[in-house]
Amino acid sequence: MSRDYANRTSRPAKGRGGRRGGPEPRRVPWIPLTLIVALIAGFGYFLWSIKGSADTAKAEQAKVEAAKPKKDPNALPPKPQEEWTYLKELENKQVEVDVPKPEEIRSAGPYQMQCGSFRDASQAEKMKAVIAFQGMTAQVRKSEGSNGAWYKVILGPYEKKRDAERARHKLQGIGMNTCQIWLWQN
């Protein structure tokens, strides 16, 4: 015999002790209720003990303040003692500064700007053409080294380094970020 547990109907519950139809009397949960009352009583005792200790602390503080001599409210506190020795050392220290003469301030010479160095002369000429479109004149110099010939793209000479910087910023505006500024070399 098979039973249909999914569609079965519930039967009315029988009451305890032969009572029928009436609700069951509820039991009072004594343990949680006792625990809650104990916690509330403990919290109340804690607050009462704090209040008592605060009153005694205030009384002790009032006694200490009463024992202090009255000071002038406009009087300054005493000067603190210095703990550091470097202050005395700095008072006796002499600092020497070399101030350059106006002739020495002048730059060491004219400046040049190198924007590229290539193995192939045609690449150097292409970079020279790009620089020419910006309204600047460049030179292509050939230099022989231990590892072969190099073609350098040079701008200048510039009397002041500031002028060379201005030209470099103009070239950076078109995306040419490889330029370096050096003293002029023939």
Automatic annotation (TrEMBL):
SUPFAM superfamilies recorded: Sporulation related repeat
Pfam families in alphabetical order: SPOR
Keywords annotated in UniProt: Membrane, Transmembrane, Transmembrane helix
Residues spanning the membrane: 30-48
Classification via Gene3D superfamilies: Sporulation related repeat
Superkingdom of the source species: Bacteria
All residue ranges annotated as the SPOR domain in the record: 105-185
PROSITE patterns named in the record: SPOR
Residues covered by region (Disordered): 1-25
PANTHER family reported for this sequence: CELL DIVISION PROTEIN DEDD-RELATED, CELL DIVISION PROTEIN FTSN
Designated name of the protein: SPOR domain-containing protein
Organism: Shewanella jiangmenensis
